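Hey all, quick one. A colleague (J.T.) asked me to put the adenosine monophosphate job into the tracker so the inputs and the structure tokens live in one place instead of scattered across chat threads. No bug as far as I know, just bookkeeping. Sequence used:
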Amino acid sequence: MKFKIAPQAPRGMHDLLKDDAELFLGIFNEILKHSYLYGFEYIRTPIVEKEEIFTASLGAFTDVIEKEMFYIDKKEKGEKYVLRPEGTAAIARAYLQNGMHSWPQPVKLFYFGPMFRYERPQAGRYREHYQWGLEIIGTEDPIYDAKIIQTFDRFLRKFKLKDFIFRINSIGCLNDRNKYKKYLKKYYKKYLKNICEDCKRRYVNNPLRLLDCKNEKDQEIKKSAPVIVDYLCKQCEEHFKKTLEYLEELEIQYELDPHLVRGFDYYSKTVFEIYFVEKTTAIGGGGRYDYLIKFLGGKQIPGVGGAIGIERLMDIFKIHQIKLNVYKKPLVFIAYATEKAKKYAYYVYDLLLKNNINVVENFAKNSLTSQLEYADKIGVKYSIIIGHYEMGSKSVILKNMLDKIQETIPLANLVEELKSRLK
Ligand code: AMP
């Protein structure tokens, strides 16, 4: 088959190369260490889930369900499959399926992986993006709402980042929300002619989403809308107060955002988002989801969690010039001088790697000169050169690339010699 133009990655999806690829892995590495330190264990769920996992939990009238789902062509017994748009609902499914209620509670899990949303690609908004997520399931205790925020806060601070803030709100329990929705609708009724088309639909189907509207014109109207915290029951009010007290105890910077509701219906009580001063979009967010497991057919088991978007986090790391090195620059190069010595050179190369010496080759080049040019280009300290004579005498030539001095070293001493010179 011939391509008319060079083949392209799907729209809104990207290859990750060189420094970006290294930063991505560096972040992943730090996330592993940090999540385990803060008491979370790793969970991996499939990238593909049944559609119902999300339709039953995120809410029918949310952007993700209405327009952003990535459907897969193959069906199993009439059940539709999708590429997961987010992690939490799938973790709740896994909690139920694997009987995690019988594990010591609460269960603390972390995940890292790609999410898919069929959005219009733009800066910071892709069709495939990665998330680092945390979930604590099996407790209502507000100290765990604080713990999710604490774990993210301490991660960001590890890299001396400080220009960020947690915006936080409580959207109460279902009763509170139903009560509030009535007042919200009453308020918006006066403006029905003025609000955007999306909001007109939200008004009918999902009034809480009116507060998610990003349309400039609607912002003035939103400013004076009633706020949900004024409608919280005693229990939810107390829960929110305690969450904030825990954050204050740990001196975590937050600000109340009385109109923050977040995009999915499964949230209850605490909701939060993380904003950096230099960006208008959140790098992360989350909240409590005391009804989610019930929505999926289980008992009412409470939970709380959150996720950070890796691409947006990488942007922040780049702005602040934070580098995470996972790639160790090689300091030794190995070259063969004659075709006959190539096999022996390959043997020595393998021996050095087995002994943890970071050695690099370019066996594809067939002249010694071009191999050594490559060694100069990548800036190694030493080159090992192997010719016919060295092969016969079980030795190598060790060339110092700075002063160009060459010496012959018996192969038996090479590993020790390099280790002491590279210390
Ligand atoms: P959400 O649960 O939708 O708020 O997503 C959690 C985090 O994932 C967001 O704060 C973003 O950092 C990131 N995120 C969500 N959607 C996208 C997207 N389409 N492209 C890139 N990052 C995203």
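Adding what we noticed when we looked at it: The chain has two domains: 18-173+233-319, 332-421. Residues 18-173+233-319 form a domain with the BirA Bifunctional Protein; domain 2 fold (CATH 3.30.930.10).
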